Amino acid sequence: IDLTTSVARHDITIEATNEGGSVNSLDFTLENAYADKLAFIAASQGEAKLQVTQKRGESDSTYTMQMNEAAESVTVIVELTFTETMAPFPTQIAQEESQLVTYNDNVFFYSPYSVDTQTTTVTVPSDNIKDQTMQTPFQVKDKTITYGPYENVEAKSSSPLRIHF
Description:
With about 160 residues, the protein is mainly β. The chain has 1 helix and 13 strands; from the N terminus they run ββαβββββββββββ. It starts with 7 loop residues before the first strand and ends with a strand.
């Protein structure tokens, strides 16, 4: 997750395996609160761009990526850009003060599938991180916060991620 500009950019690498079959399509989900803030989406398999379709449900939206070539194992890169995900905190400051913001998200990739291993890395514009979610294991180094690796994450797992910087 890249928070170095006024938008939040997510670059997600998904390595999917269908044991005993082939992967023709791959789904991922976003809770509707996040889907409503999605400004851009793109997916690729190697150099090939993938078609992405959305189906909105009551509580979340499912995005389906059609594979250009089916295989037992695929690697897909998903690029997401969200707007209005950071909020000034405190909301009022003196003119000479630097404005800090908060960012709220999910520590986990909100997947419709169980996940064997997952790591979430967040990059902020400076090392002036005032507070962050303390879900272990995590590491703060300079401008980067790394959560995980987490193993055997259940489908649609959610744990609040909050960063104040």
